[in-house]
Amino acid sequence: MNRRRMQVLYSGRVQGVGFRYQTRQVASGFEVTGTVRNLPDGRVELVAEGMEAELKEFRTAIRESGLGPMIRNEQEFWAEPNGEFRGFEIVR
Is 25 within a domain? Predict the structure, then answer.
């Protein structure tokens, strides 16, 4: 198995526009676990675990879900999974 952990930091007009809720909706169509939350600096942080190919498709689906025009920049980081998530949640 090629399970991975993906962290993506989104910047642009990503807070106050339903970004976290739409991301959670998109996640329901994928075999991924993780969280999405607003950061104090105006960015949104996505942390997800799953198969690498599934995570890449999930990231693409987020952009294609109507959120793409709101995203100005994405920083992507990969690491080994630690299995801390049970589902996919919005962190407040």
Answer: yes
Residue 20 falls in the annotated catalytic set: yes
Predicted structure pTM score: 0.95
Catalytic residue among 4, 20, 43, 59: 20
Q: How far is CA 20 from CA 8, 24, 83, 85, 89, in A?
A: 13, 6, 21, 17, 9
CATH number at residue 76: 3.30.70.100
- Is residue 38 flagged as an active site residue? yes
CA angle (71, 41, 15) in 5-degree steps? 45
d(CA 83, CA 3): 10
Q: What is the pLDDT of residues 57-81, one digit of tens each?
A: 999 999 999 999 999 999 999 999 9
Catalytic pick among 13, 24, 37, 38:
38
Paired sense of beta strands 3-12 and 71-79, if any:
antiparallel
Residue 90 counted as domain residue = no
Residue 91 is assigned to a structural domain of this protein: no
